[in-house]
Amino acid sequence: MASYFEKIYDALEDGFTLILPSEESARSILSGYVLERKKSVESKRALSFDTYLSLFHEDGEKEASFVERYIFSLSFLEKHQDRLTYLISSEYESEIASSAAYISSLIPDLERAEKYLGRNNKADIMLLKKEYDEFLYSNSLYEKSYISSLKPLAGRFVFAFADTFMEEFFSLMKEKMDIAIIYPESSIRNEVVHVYENEKIEIRDVLLKIRKLITEDKVNAEEICITAAGYDRIRDRLEEEAYLVSLPLAFMRGENVLETPSGAFIKAAKTLYETDYDALEMKAFLLNASIPFKDEKEIRDFVYEISSRSIKKRDKKKDRYFACQKSRDGIYSRIINHVDAMNTTSDPSKLIYYTKSFTEAMLSESQFEGEETRNYFSFLIRSLNDFASLLRNLHLPSEICRPIFPLFMKYAESITYMEKEKKDGIRVYPYGQNRGTKTAFNFIIGVNEREARIREKDARFLSDYEVGPLREEKDSTALLLEEYLSSSAVYFSSSETSFSGAERALSILKEKRDSELLSDSYRREAEINTEGEWGSVYSVQKKAYSRALFTSLDEKKGTEMISSSLTFPFTPRHLSASQIDTYRKCPYQYFLSYIFNFNSSFSYSDICYPALELGVRLHRTIERYFSPENSLYTNEALISIFSSELDLWIERKTYDRSGRIVALEKSVPAIEEDMKAFFLMRYEKGLVAIKDRIEREGGRLVFEKRMEGEISKEKIVAYPDLVSYKDDSVSVFDFKSSERKDLASSIQMDVYAYLLSASVDSMSYLIFSDGKEEKKSPLEKSEVEEIVSSVASSIRSGKFNTTEDKDMCTGCRLRSLCRRRFIIR
Question: What are the PD-(D/E)XK endonuclease-like domain coordinates in residue numbering (predicted)?
Answer without folding.
Answer: 574-819
